[in-house]
Every structure is written in C-alpha cells, then in structure tokens.
Write a structure and sequence with these properties.
about 425 residues; mainly alpha
Amino acid sequence: MPPLTGLIVGIAVMLLLLAAGVWIAFAVGLGAVVTLWPLLGVKTLSLIGLQAWDTTTSFVLVAIPLFVFMGEIISGAQLVDRLYSGVSRLISGLPGGLVQTNLFACSIFAACSGSSVASAATMGRVAYHEQVGRRGYQARIVLGSVAAGGTLGILIPPSIFFIVFAAIADESVGRLFLAGLVPGIVMSALFMVYVAIRAVIDPGLVPRGPAERQQVPGLGARLRGLLEIWPFFLLMVAVLGSLYGGVATPTEAAGVGAAAALLIAIGYRSLTREALKAACLGTVRTSAMLFFIIISAKAMAIALAYYGVPGMMKGFAAGLGSPYLLLLIISVVYLLLGTVFEDFSLMIIMLPFVLPMIRASGFDQVWFGVFMTVLLQAGLMSPPVGLNLFVIQGVTGAALSEVVWGSLPFLVIMLGVGVVLVLFPPLAIWLPSYWIG
C-alpha cells in the first residue's frame, strides 16, 4: 500500500468507526494504526505502547483524576444542596428569582468540579422540579439556564479541558486557567443579565409567590446563605490559591483540592461509604476514558506528522492570506462538528490539524485555547446532539424540544462572547501576562 494511500485509508477508517458509534478512543486509535502501518509495520504497536506509557506517567495529567475525584465527592456528598440553598438566599431579590440561582450556583460548582456534564446534571436535578413543578416557572428558561450554566465547567478554572490542551500544545496550565477566568465570569454575568431582562419584561416567566413578594431578605439571611456556600469558596481558594500563590504545581493544586473536598464532606458527615465507593468508581471510569482518548489522539498526531500533515496545514493557513479567514473556517468546522461529536473528543481529534495552522497564523495559543473552549461550549448546547441538552433532558424528564428552545438564547450569548474574544483578545490574555509559571 502506498504511504499516501495509508493516510487516506486510516482517516477514512477513523471517520467510519466514529459514524458507526464506536468509542472515540478505539476509533481514533485504530485509525492511527492503519495510518502508520505502511510506514512502520509492526513498530507501530511499539510506538503506541510508548505513547501509552508517556501519557499515563505524565505528572501534568495526574491532575485529571484528582479534579475528577473532587467533582465526584462534591456531587456524591450532597454538598450541592447546600450550595443551591445558600446561593438562593445570597442573591434573593434579583429579577429572575431562582433562575439566577441556577446560573450563579453553576458558576461556583463549575469552578470546583471542572466538569460541564457534572454541573448540568447536578444542578438540573436540584432545580427543575422545584422551579417548574412547585413554583410554576416557565420550563424553557429554567432548562436553558441550567444547560448554559453547566457549560461553564470547561471554561472557569480549574478545567480538565485546559489541562489536556496544555499537555498537547505544550502550554502552561496556570496561564490557561487564568485566561479562562475573565471570559468565564463575563459569560456568566451576561447570562444573568439576560435572565433579569426577560424577567422584568415578562414577570410571568418566573412568578413570585406571596412570601417572596412580601418579604425582602435581610442582611442576616444573606449572611446565612454565605455561610452555606463557604466550603465551595474554600475549595476555590485551596486550588487556585495554592497554584497562584506559588506553593503548588497544577497537579499538586489538584491534590489539595481533592483532599479539601474529602475533608469538607467528612466534616459535614455527608460522605457515606457508598458515596465514597461511587466517587472512586466514577473517577476511575472517567479518567480511564480520558486517558484512552489522549493516548489514541497522540498516536494519530504522530501519524499525521509522519505524513507531513502539519506542514500542509501551515501551508494552507499561509495560502489563505488572512488569519481571520482561517479563524472563521475553524469556527465553522468546530460548530458543525460540535453538533455530532462530544466536546472532549472533538477537541482531541481536531487539535493535530488545527494547532499547526494557529501557530503559522501568529495567534496566541493560550488565547486560542480559550476561544476553542467557547466553541466547544457552544457544541455542548447545539442541536441535534449537544451533550448538555441530552443530560438536562435525562435528569429532568422534560421534552428535548423544550430544552433546545430554552437553550438557544444562551447559545447566542455564548457565540457573542466568542466574537468579543476575536475583536478584543486581551479579554483572555491580559491576566495571564502578569503570571509566569
């Protein structure tokens, strides 16, 4: 088989297996084997073995299971109920009622768990029946707020996506965390402003009960709310404070966060033996899946390098003449593929093709990491198969069409933040420029 034919056949095999629903890791891995075999023969298997060893022994990537464990403990120990209750007291009185609680609580939970799916599933389970079933809120705005708030898990630090991106792009995890902080806060704030405007224009979307209309929460109630959510602020300080205080690497900071989550759950006596077992098993499943995907993606990246694909991508980028035209093409591809691919898998599959073009066009890799994450967030909410849409539909039992229509305004805001990042790159790269690590 001619070498170029091997490249074409390998990519075709990967795409066919992905379309057939084969697990991402095996589809990409088998495609890499088929691509490399005409060049390396049986040495292909040795190369994949070396990549597996290099990935599973990477000190940076050890942060992944630690952050996953932290999120599992928070979910399994029922700390989210405290978060929801505390936030509802703290921001009570804002236009939009408990829908604002969904967004604010999701932002805090995202900063502690680093997982969009976990944020959406956990907050959706807590919020939907209370707000739609008991209080008569419009289902669409509740569903949309939880789906949108959940996506913040991959943008607000600590983010597992940024850890993997840093490992592949050879960038600083600390700089990527800082780069995602301001855009994440801006996006969360815009979501809340949108909900407030909708609630003011149409109060029937989030009707207020007699008790809410008659009683304005005082300072004491808000302080009690703040006390209920202090464990989450403690986790954020433990992780980000140890990292940016210069006392811990990203991996060590992840260890600090996992230990702090465990101690908090034990302190509240909410961590049962069954919950701890479930957290450990969930961590193993999620981490194993992520590591298998990373190993396969690295093997495919090596295969593409053997065939000179990065050079071809650089040539294509240079031939376009405008770096912004390249960015537009990349954005369209991400948004289209985001409707059929899961976000993490899409990032892994696309990076070997996209990064050489981004480097050739002169874009800052840290900035692109944030911009790409916004596109992946949009993919989580894009029909027909945005993952967060199905997660919310599954945990609430609502109709998928209601989830989709409720999410569309938030999707538009998300894409607007992406446009602002292009027009004003310092939104992402200003804060990292002040930190060296």
